[in-house]
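TL;DR need structure tokens for one chain.
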Amino acid sequence: MSKRTNRRDFLRKSALAGSGLVIITSGCARLASEPAPAPRKISPNEKVNIACIGCGGKGAGEVDDAARFGNLVAMCDVDENRARKKFEEFPDVPKFKDFRVMLEKMDKQIDAVTISTPDHIHAPAAMMAMQMGKHVFVQKPMTHTVHEARLLTETARKYKVATQMGNQGTASDGLRRGVEALWSGVIGDVTELHVWTNRPIWPQGQRALDERKKLANEPKPEGLDWDLWLGPAPKRPYNKVYVPFNWRGWYDWGTGAFGDMACHILNMMFMGLKLGYPTSIEGQVPELKEEVYPDWSIVKYEFPAREGMPPVKFTWYDGGKKPPEELFHGEKPGQGGALAVGTKGSMYQRGDYGDTWMLLPRKDFEGFDYKAELKKLPKSPGHFQEWVEACKGGRPALSNFDYAGFLTEVVVLGCIAQRLPGRKIEWDGPKMRAKNCPEAAALIRKEYPKGWYIS
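>> reply
TL;DR here they are.
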């Protein structure tokens, strides 16, 4: 029996109501055992009423998509400065700072939400929205922790909502052709996988700590609600080094270079190689810091045989580290990409999104049709549009939480290995347990303070 089948069976048997999940918001508490509110039925000719949580930076694109493909009915951002441009562009749309207040106040007017916030807010916002019967689009990585990814996957299934994670390359024909090529066995049995990125392009390691010290006396800007920005994270004073972008390198809010980029770069290979739960993970870093991810890392996974495919050793590289050049058959490895090594050849994914790739060595694959019509995967109308159509009862988006939750679990496992370097962690996927490393438990599943959610 395959690992993927084991996972499906496990999740199906994991009744969410039995977890005692509670959402605690500013005005109500809902037990998971209460009847689930059904999403509003939306006809193909109607528009989906969409609220956006996070409207600056990456969230600005979600605001535009919500207005283009649906009805933009509410906007929420803890930072008025960051969101000002979009707030002014849609002056008649109600504005909020606290997504919990927005969801409670506008419950009946909202069909779906987008979530473009720091990683630590993804799960609380998505969980509350889904428990209210709202469809959810959340940026990558889907969650901050392994446990959150599992919980969101189960919750989406329980409440029968349409979901999508923002790994936009999933919608490209190029990625889908690459997946089908791997499924066809064009490069034979794949036994090695290498994935790398030039990130971090923000401060991590000692540099982040030094910059925080240098900026310690900078005042908090007007319009930023720092307490709401922190949300369920531990309380600490504002520092300019954290926002609006460099939070990614800090344990409390982000997932570092691995969490930021692997949901993009690993995506095609993860799908094409049908990767299940790894049996082990091991991290290497230059120096361990208490609060921040490292300047660079190399993380090694071992995956067992699954669905007729042999075991795979997967290595992740960031901070400028790359696979050995001799694996590329004369090609030059770019700043980010992926390389699958098979018994008949290799597949080299150039770039982050999986839309561009080649088979190596080139001479062995002359005449290969890189633009062949898709046979097993459907063409996409566009990443956001897929989700909107799913909200109306159409086909689930390809990166829905059943898939994206599993991918996220595997990715954020790598973040745990970065924080516990030098340990070969033996992983029990269905039980979310590091069998030989009890100190990982607090990183797999974190505690939430009162006012947010617990499980």
